[in-house]
Amino acid sequence: MQIKVEAASELDADRLRTLRLAALSDSPNAFGAKYEVEKEKPINFWQNSARITNWCLVSAEQVDIGLLAVDKATKDRTADCWISAWWIHQEFRGKGVTKLMLDWVDQLASKNNWRRMGLGVWPDNKQAISAYEKLGFIAGSEPMPSRSIPGLLYLPMFRDIGGESNE
User: How is residue 114 annotated by DSSP?
Assistant: First the structure.
């Protein structure tokens, strides 16, 4: 099976939108964003998102199967970059796609001189936490307030380039 991992451009706005909506529909409780809100956003929103965020799009045999986003992190994140929206179609989970996506993030981080990456996961999402731990992410010491859903806390997880953590 041929897996392709690539950066999204403005020309990929339709693909980005379709994948993001598929992720939100498939795993509505895994993300801070909500399908009902995202589906109403116009195509220029997705074009702009592709311009300002590093989106990774993944396809297998020319069918889109996954995505993630990487942004330069704000100081309060205690990381250099922040990963969000990480999703893989159920049929392709556990088949090495996650590692290919992390390799893409590692390359992006190296190119931007980002040494520490972070992400947030809901504390009850044990499957995602386990998957991130297998990739070398280590949980932060304290849950943090969600920016997208006030009143909820997320578990920050961190990974240094090379897989070692300073935590």
Answer: -
